[in-house]
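Many introductory courses stop at the sequence. We go one step further.
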Amino acid sequence: MTDTTPVETPTPPAPPDWLTGPIAFMERVADICATPGGRADLRTGTTRNGLAEPWRMLPHLIAYIPRQNRRSETAYLAIAAMCAAQADNPTLKGTTRTGGHDPAQGNLGTTLAHAVRLGVLHQEFAIERLQHLARQNTLDGLLRQLRPLINRLAGEKLPLSWPLLLSDVRRWPTYRTDIARAWMRTFYAPTNPNPESDSQENLT
């Protein structure tokens, strides 16, 4: 007799408490990108003066950005803009939601390691990019180096944890050495069974 008992799907582990805020913010970004006008407004953050004059972005996001300092606000807006730049056109059929959280996705180092394994990036290029990022003392410098890399990774449909990226970027440059080390560690050890642990927020 064949056993027809349905196989239960394991429940994904709950995200760590420190990631709750970034997940909620990126869910808000995904909701905004589900409309053509909202997606267009967030994409203005990728223009030359978009983050300095984020007038079209702020009405959508200001209530969801913690009140800390201008640098932190810039980090939130920058990641929202990057995510919107990769979001599918909501008017087309078969679009996928961008910005959600998947516990299996690790930090930027994990994504780069995946890109190397797939042949999207050469290992030497990926290491060079990580080194350039690690040398950026300011948030503006980090974002200048990060934008083209994220565009390339997202353009190849590689899995990218936007909440983890937001968590790392908003703590730069105060913890840049620790964050860069975590990216490099997961790049060389991409089989980490708990990828979120290498971007932990208890440094704050």
